[in-house]
Write a structure and sequence with these properties.
globular; disordered C terminus
Amino acid sequence: MQDFIEMQRRQEAERQQALDSFDQQLRRIISHQPGTAPWRGTSRDLVEMVDLVASRQSICDDRGIPLSRMELARKAFAATGLHLPAHVSSVVQRIRNRTSTSHSLLVRWGRRGEIILKAQKLTNS
C-alpha cells in the first residue's frame, strides 16, 4: 500500500512539474511580438497547452485577473503566427474526449522528461 501511495505522490509531482513547465513555455510564447515565437508542435498541441495553463489561472492581466482560455489562445496563436481555430472550445472538447491518452501533452512530456514540442530557448530572443 505504501508503494502505491508513493507512486501516486511521484506521479502528481511529475504532473505539477509538467504544468509548471507549460506555464513557463506559454508565458515565453505570449511575450513575443506577433508571428515571432517559434513553435514546432501542432495547433492542437498549442490549444491543449493553453487549456492546461488556463485551468490553473496562473497567467493574469495587468489588473491581476486571470486570462481566459480564449484570450490566452488568441495571444499564443498570434505570437506563433498560427491560424487560431474558429471554435477553440470544440478543439478542447475533442482533446478531452479522445480515447487514447498516448497523444496527451502531459503523457508525452512525462515520457521524455521535457516538453516534446519544445520551442527554442527564448531567453536570448
